[in-house]
Design brief:
Blueprint: E1 4-8, H1 12-22, E2 28-32, H2 35-44, E3 49-52, H3 61-69, E4 79-83, H4 88-97, E5 101-104, H5 109-119
Parallel strand pairs: 1-2, 1-3, 3-4, 4-5
Amino acid sequence: MAKRILVVDDDEMVLIALNELLSPKGYEVETVAGGKEALERLADHSYDLLMLDVIMPEMDGFELCKRVRQIKEYSKTPIVFLTAKSAEEDKVRGLEAGANLFLSKPISPEKLLSIIAEALGSG
């Protein structure tokens, strides 16, 4: 069964690029543009990994990550931040919010695929 990944980013080009990168590798990718929509999707579907941006309108990725961790079914699901933010304090905030990894853009597609496979236990 294909691993399901939810990508949350307000940049449509990032959503398209990640879908184009991950889908051919056999991942089932769903994309949403914000935190509120992500929480709605999480209530109705199950995912094996979440990829979050930090900077989004309405609810930033840190807040979304904290809320996801409060959902029993997602308390252990791998959460990866993929963001333009690269300061050490942002990384610390992301990990404190409950993320497993904090990656700064740009990142090579090969490295990202490797990290995702490892996070899903298939690497």
